[in-house]
Amino acid sequence: MPRFQKDISLAPYSHYKIGGPAKFFFNAKDEKGLVWAVREAKKKKLKIFVLSGGTNLLIGDDGFDGLVVRPDIKTLKLKGATMHVGAGVVMADVINFAAQKSCKGLEWAGGLPGTLGGAIRGNAGCFGGEMKDVITSVRSLDTQTMKIVKRNAKQCRFSYRDSIFKKKHGKEIILDAMLHLAAGNKKEILATIQEKIAHRQKNHPLEHPNIGSTFKNVPLERIHKKGSGSYRRALAVGAVSFRGSQFSVKTDPFPVISAAKLIGESGLRGVSFGGAMISPKHPNFIVNVLGASASDVQTLIDLAKAEVWKKFSVQLEEEVQII
C-alpha cells in the first residue's frame, strides 16, 4: 500500500538547494500512483503542489503545508520519428535519446535542465527553439474531475514561457507527451547539442546553484510600438538605443531585448544579499553562493525589478515560479 512521506526537506529537490519542508511528499512512479496520491490528498483536504525538476522554482523557507507530488514517470520510447516521453524524464536524457536514434528537432535544448513535464508547462525555449515546436500531444490528469485529458499542441495554448498547464496553477498534472522529430545525421545532431552545452558553460554561472533565468526577456514592442519606424529600424540593424544604453535585439522566439542587459545596465552585477548574488557573469541569474535562503533571493528579485523600473521604466516579469 503506498503512503506519503512526512516532513521532507525540499531543498535537495531544488537546483537552488533552497527550500523548507513539505508536510507530505509522494514520488509517483507511474500514472496509477499519481492518481492514488491525488485522490488521497483530496480526501485529506490537502493543498497539492506539483514538483518537476526543481529547475525554475524558488521554494519558500517555510516549505509547503500540504502534499508535494513528484510525477516521476520515466517512459521513453521511439516509433519512427515520434517519441513517447514521460513527464519525469530529465531533458538531458530526452535529448540524448533522440540524438542516439539520429532524430533531430531538440538540438536547441542542449544543456537544458529539468524534466519534460516542467519544460512543457513553461514552454521552455532557448536558441530560437521552444517545446511547442516539437509537441504533438500532451496527456494530463485533471485533479478536479480526476479524468485524463489529451490535448494536441494547439490546445495546449503555448505562448512565451507559458501554456494552458501553467495557467491552470497545478489543477492539471502532466503525465506524458508525444514529440514529433525528423530523421537527421547523428554526428551533426550531437555536434549541435554540444555547441549549445558549451555556450551555457561559457556564459552561465553553472558553478553555483541556480534556477536559470530569473526574468523573461522583454518584448521589443514594449520599448517601441510594433510596426512603428523605430521598431522597424531596430529590427533592421539588430539593435536599439534606449535611455542611454545600447541593446541587441534577438529573437526569443520574437524580437526581445535581454533582461540580463537591463539588469546589468542598472548597475546590479555582483550585488549580493545574504547568501544570494546577482551573477556578474550573467545578471539574469541570481545564484546561491553561500547557503542562501529564499528570502535572500526574493530581496534581490525585488531589487532588480525596482532598479530596472527606475532606470528604464520597464517592468520585469519573473520567469521563475515562487512558492
Q: At the first level of CATH, what is the class of the largest domain?
A: Alpha Beta
Q: What average pLDDT do the residues reach?
A: 95
Proportion of helical residues: 25-40%
Name the poorly predicted regions.
none
Beta-strand residue percentage: 25-35%
Instruction: Supply the CATH architecture of the largest domain.
Output: 2-Layer Sandwich
- Structural class label: alpha+beta
Per the CATH scheme, the topology name of the largest domain is Uridine Diphospho-n-acetylenolpyruvylglucosamine Reductase, domain 3
Output the number of helix runs.
Answer: 8
Largest sheet: 5 strands, antiparallel
How is the largest sheet built, in terms of strand order? 6-7-13-11-12
N- to C-terminal distance: 30 Å
Q: What is the molecular shape?
A: globular
Radius of gyration: 20 Å
* Total discrete domains: 3
Number of strands: 23
Structure description:
The protein is built from 8 helices and 23 strands. It is α+β, with helices and mostly antiparallel strands and 323 residues long. It has 3 domains: 5-71, Uridine Diphospho-n-acetylenolpyruvylglucosamine Reductase, domain 2 (2-Layer Sandwich); 76-200, Uridine Diphospho-n-acetylenolpyruvylglucosamine Reductase, domain 3, CATH 3.30.465.10; 207-322, Alpha-Beta Complex (Uridine Diphospho-n-acetylenolpyruvylglucosamine Reductase, domain 1), CATH 3.90.78.10. It has a 5-stranded antiparallel sheet with strand order 6-7-13-11-12. Strand 20 and strand 21 form a beta hairpin. Helix 2 packs antiparallel against helix 5. The protein is globular, with a radius of gyration of 20 Å.
